[in-house]
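Fold this sequence, please.
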Amino acid sequence: MAGLVPAICVLYVPQYVDAGDERGHDGPESWRHMNLLSIQSHVAYGHVGNSAAVFPLQRMGVEVWPVHTVQFSNHTGYGQWQGRVFDGDLIRELVGGIGNLGCLGECDGVLSGYVGGADVGAAILEAVATVKRANPAAQYCCDPVIGDVGRGVYVHDGIPEFMREKAVPAADVITPNQFELDHLTGGESRTMAQAFVAIDKLHALGPRVILVTSLHTNETPEDAIDLVVSGEQGRYLLRTPRLPSMVNGAGDTIAALFFAHYLRSGTIDVALSQSASAVFGVLAKSAEAGSREMLMIAAQEEIVAPTQVFEAKFLNT
């Protein structure tokens, strides 16, 4: 057919001149252009999986290449939904198609979340290996979705073992919640000291950076939630007020924002402060409105200029 031209991977690089601005941005380096491949579930209504990760990343200036592992009408917490679960071959096809455009060398990282089956997990790890061959500097962030306190394990049989034996060792960054931290290490993190032991066990499997979300030990006030990040730069604690909110997807959002901020800044404390402050801002506005879903669009300014900024505190351990 006349008029066809070969596909060319064109990357838009935004230009930012000021060294900072009134919204608290950190200057040109904090706005370095970035491409992330996000392989997660997707819902048409609401914000979980890619629906909770893609827009926040785009809002902070990241180019996202979303690949969906499922496409549902809404998240399963509603008790009813419609849609389809995709298989590993579709993920391979989509990543292969991106690779055929010659773009994977420009991919800065791969982000993964909920894994529906072992074949999908294998396809994700193949995608990670493919990206890293094209760009050895690329990193992999795995949100090892297994379950949560109060709900227990809610993934299919074999997925917890896949996370522990394959996904976590392949990851540069992991973002488990407290339940997942304990499940992956076979212990309990009732105290901060126990949490540190569990974190060290996960470091021994491979990940250089570990962010534990929704942490509540005997040292955490009842009206607060702790987040702990651990890496070569040490350990940091960030504490936020506990909000009267039961929305889904906050873990997916903070995993995405933390990964992007970490890749940009290179520092785990800055990444924790920026991502946790942004998510808290979105959740606070959602709770104020009494919404069952995160008000990601209405509260989008919180993603780039949080109303309240929480600082990460260095832990001398």
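The chain has one domain: 32-315. The domain at 32-315 is CATH 3.40.1190.20 (UDP-N-acetylmuramoyl-L-alanine:D-glutamate ligase).
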